Q: What sequence folds into this?
């Protein structure tokens, strides 16, 4: 029977050596690459069936990968499918019949080669996005190795954009390693990614759409904003750097592991989100305060115009007003002119806070929602005495605007700055204050 087995295999597969013992059939591609079949007690037909099942998978994978790239070849041993290419290191896929069926591993290989790659930043396929992330304070690495949270099995995420943070997937790590040809940087198990699901279905956009990559960054930034504003952990998108120095962090990450419902709650205004992440990624300085303040500043005119329009509408809806009466029309012009002269930036900031910071909520809810902000103002900055003073938006806007002026005046000869008068500790508290106010405004601002 040994001769029949050898003849059967060599007719089936070219260029292999075959060794048959009482208990094993060994098919050797090279001295280092082989597959062993345990065949003790099996009949010839049972042996050939086992070999044929293996060969069908091998042939199917070979045919598929040759369509992807004619220079690829593969081998399948007892526990691994190995894919070779002359230009990169081998790629392996686990093959364990107790976990994977042969069909499963074939589908996994197809899924891997269907990934679209954004060099050293992201990969994606239908309804799946994976982007590299890191804590903002970290210079090298990502600082997130202790973080893993996933959607609970009892939560239905099929019709929502949901996400998880966990170690970089083997597929993405392999893709980076394969395409970049790294020798010193080992991606697998050393980096963390944000994985986002269902964007294509929820947003009704194809991965082939020319705007899809910009959609990736927008959705990812919305999620990272929610994490930063709710949990106080600043995370940014990561593009793998050239430097290999490691940074050190002190951020408490346990709060991330407590995330229970990792759904994207809303889509935020793209300009405000971009301003936010630009500020978040800056080192602490008066420039960082101004960058967060710019979020508030960029909607000054919009809110001011809205207030002006409401005033004009009130006049026009009055019983005495006539669009045919020049004097009545002149009253509107005078009102707009008065408003233009009276509303400086300090007043415009107050309007922004009225509309998008406090809004229409009742006082108790407003004070509870903003207790972190009142704590900074009262305990850290001694700028108010009681929580009740938070209701005075003129006072709050004055605190924010006056410090903005201090930052601006210290930079009149930028980039040759005069000395900034606040201590590092005070500056840090003011940055924390304006960041939290900006987060509240972004959260309340309607997405377009």
A:
């Amino acid at each position: 029977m040994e001769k029949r087995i050898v003849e059967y295999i060599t007719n089936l597969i070219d260029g292999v050596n075959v060794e048959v013992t009482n208990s094993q059939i060994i098919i050797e591609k090279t001295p280092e690459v082989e597959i062993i079949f345990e065949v003790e007690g099996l009949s010839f037909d049972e042996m050939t069936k086992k070999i044929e099942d293996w060969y069908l998978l091998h042939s199917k994978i070979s045919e598929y990968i040759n369509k992807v790239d004619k220079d690829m070849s593969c081998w399948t041993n007892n526990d691994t499918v190995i894919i070779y290419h002359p230009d990169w290191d081998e790629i392996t896929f686990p093959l364990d019949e107790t976990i994977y069926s042969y069909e499963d591993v074939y589908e996994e290989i197809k899924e891997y080669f269907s990934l679209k790659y954004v060099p050293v930043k992201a990969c994606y396929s239908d309804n799946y996005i994976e982007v590299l992330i890191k804590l903002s304070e970290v210079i090298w690495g990502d600082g997130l190795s202790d973080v893993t949270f996933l959607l609970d099995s009892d939560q239905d995420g099929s019709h929502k954009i949901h996400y998880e943070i966990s170690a970089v997937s083997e597929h993405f790590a392999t893709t980076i390693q394969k395409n970049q040809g790294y020798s010193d940087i080992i991606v697998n198990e050393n980096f963390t990614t944000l994985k986002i699901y269902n964007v294509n279905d929820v947003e009704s956009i194809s991965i082939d759409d020319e705007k899809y990559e910009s959609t990736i960054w927008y959705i990812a930034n919305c999620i990272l904003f929610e994490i930063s504003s709710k949990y106080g952990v600043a995370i940014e998108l990561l593009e793998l750097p050239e430097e290999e120095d490691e940074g050190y962090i002190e951020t408490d990450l346990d709060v991330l592991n407590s995330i229970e419902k990792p759904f994207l709650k809303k889509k935020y205004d793209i300009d405000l989100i971009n301003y936010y992440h630009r500020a978040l990624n800056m080192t602490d300085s008066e420039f960082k305060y101004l960058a967060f303040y710019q979020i508030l500043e960029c909607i000054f005119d919009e809110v001011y115009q809205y207030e002006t329009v409401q005033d004009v509408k009130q006049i026009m809806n009055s019983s005495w007003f006539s669009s045919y009466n020049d004097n009545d029309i002149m009253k509107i012009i005078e009102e707009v002119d008065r408003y233009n002269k009276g509303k400086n930036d300090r007043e415009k900031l107050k309007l922004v806070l009225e509309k998008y910071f406090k809004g229409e909520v009742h006082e108790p809810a407003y004070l509870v929602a903003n207790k972190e902000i009142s704590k900074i103002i009262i305990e850290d900055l001694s700028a108010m005495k009681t929580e009740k003073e938070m209701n005075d938006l003129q006072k709050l806007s004055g605190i924010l605007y006056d410090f903005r002026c201090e930052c601006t005046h210290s930079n009149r000869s930028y980039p040759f700055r005069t000395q900034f008068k606040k201590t590092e500790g005070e500056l840090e508290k003011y940055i924390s204050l304006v960041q939290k106010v900006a987060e509240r405004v972004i959260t309340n601002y309607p997405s377009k």
Q: What stands out?
A: The chain has three domains: 2-111, 117-267, 295-444. Confidence is low (pLDDT under 50) at residues 242-249, 411-419.
